[in-house]
Specification:
The structure is a single chain. Helices cover 20% and strands 36% of the residues. By secondary structure, the protein is an alpha+beta fold. Strand 6 and strand 7 form a beta hairpin. The longest helix has 13 residues. It is globular and about 40 Å long.
Length: 153
């Protein structure tokens, strides 16, 4: 199966918005992994600040993450240059509902650190869990902006 990772066109944003329970606006950007006409994974970015960006992830299958993981971290963390249209952020934030145990396990396995819980922030008994990852702590992208060796293939 041939997989292409590319900037997601705005008409595809609804795919991620529905799965991640978010509302996209004119500042939203995303990248997607596609095979044929099927979206396998999408990573979206919004909540831009001078130092950070909010990340949103949706997958059609857990294995699809491997296609967008390193490109997403590089886009967020690497400074812009002629080759990589990076954003140069020092921090990635994301939120997960406490009822979404699979997503909680995934973001922890990726290296995100829980920083806060908004008790009942989604609904009664369902917290909004805030996570962060700092550039210096990202094992998926070396400090010089290169891929980790284990992901180079």
């Amino acid at each position: 199966m041939t997989v292409i990772v590319r900037p997601a066109p705005p008409e595809h944003f609804a795919w991620l918005a529905e799965r991640a329970h978010i509302v996209v606006n004119e500042n939203f950007r995303a990248m997607e992994a596609i095979s044929g006409y099927r979206i396998l994974a999408m990573v979206g970015f919004d909540g831009w600040t001078p130092a950070s960006v909010m990340l949103h992830i949706a997958l059609s299958h857990p294995a699809a993450l491997r296609h967008v993981l390193v490109p997403a971290f590089r886009l967020a963390f690497d400074p812009p240059n002629a080759v990589v249209p990076g954003c140069g952020k020092r921090l990635i934030n994301l939120t997960v509902l406490s009822s979404n145990t699979r997503s909680l396990a995934l973001v922890r396995a990726l290296g995100f650190r829980e920083t806060h819980r908004i008790r009942g922030g989604w609904s009664k008994g369902v917290d909004i869990v805030l996570f962060e990852m700092r550039r210096r702590d990202c094992r998926w992208v070396n400090q010089d902006g290169q891929q980790e060796e284990s992901w180079a293939a």
